[in-house]
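=== RUN LOG ===
request id: a7f3
mode: sequence -> structure
chains: 1
length: 261
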Amino acid sequence: MKSNLFLLAAACLLVACSANKTKTDEKGVNAEAITLQDSTELYTLTASYPVSDLDTAKKMEEFVNYVVSDQKEAWKAGGEIYNAEMEMRKKYTERSNLRYAFAMNYKEFKSAKHKTKSYMFNTYKFEGGANGPTTVNTFTFGDNKRPREITDLLNIDNKNAIMLSNVLAEKALKEIPSLDKELLYNGLGLSFLKGDGVTLDKEKCNCDGYFFGSNLQNFVVKDSTLNFYFNQGQIAPRSFGIVEIALDWDSLKPYLVPNAF
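=== RESULT ===
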């Protein structure tokens, strides 16, 4: 089990509204990548994604372009955030100008045993303060060039999703004894269950429902493990960064979809 913090440094000098093709080498796998860059008086932005022949529907390109466009819209000149920062600069002329930053990169993981490739995107955003948040999103493809969702690998009906969330919690506490159990269980939704460990207590969560399968959406397939990832601050203090919990395939046997691979 690892606790990894992928805090991405903001780019040095970025040219406005450009896209460049580069060569990357992640985990020993060569792939062509597209890098998007933009820079204004308010922010610098950079985002990279791979050009993979497995991603025939261009899901990764669609994801990155959506996130980048959404962020640029939020920070656009004349927008609420932009105007607020410009007012602050006028009011406090001796203050160093705050420079917003957005950076997204990815890592590629290949499982020869399961004939899959997984891509993990880490996104860092800075809008002031000590450190900005880091989030994670993953994509997995089989050798048939079809995206693999967690439901293609595991049976995660509500009961199984709760059981797997408990397995993740037990593994996390075992591997990282310094984890705060209350924060962990809150982040996984387990503290919202009634005494039977299955029924949702809507008063505890102040909600109408809770999707425990959300705990299993960000994953990477490896030969010996299925690794799950959680955003910074989601199940552990922000200082832990992105948390990774690896479950071996033997422990997942009761939940495996027949002929998952």
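=== NOTES ===
Helices lie at 59-74, 80-91, 150-153, 158-175, 181-188, 202-205, 249-252.
Strands lie at 2-4, 18-26, 29-39, 43-51, 100-111, 116-126, 134-142, 219-221, 225-230, 242-248.
=== END ===
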